[in-house]
Amino acid sequence: KRIICCVERVWDVQGHVFQATVSMGITMYRSDQTDAMQMMKEVDIALYQVKGKGRNHYQFYTHGLADVTSSYSI
Q1: pLDDT in tens, 43-58
Q2: Total-model pTM
Q3: What are the φ/ψ torsions at residue 59 (nearest 5 degrees)?
């Protein structure tokens, strides 16, 4: 939540006002799962769910998300 708040802050550059948003897919490192490609797939699945909900949010990957997005591929 803190990252989203920091990114949302409005900033002024030479009289032009800018504001950005961020969507994040998050996975947690597990000692039994050290495969970087699998972790990236989990992040993509979580991010896909965030964007489907309207963006500017975050989603932690859970095994249930993999079932919901079984037709999704990277």
Answers
A1: 999 999 988 888 789 9
A2: 0.69
A3: -145, 125
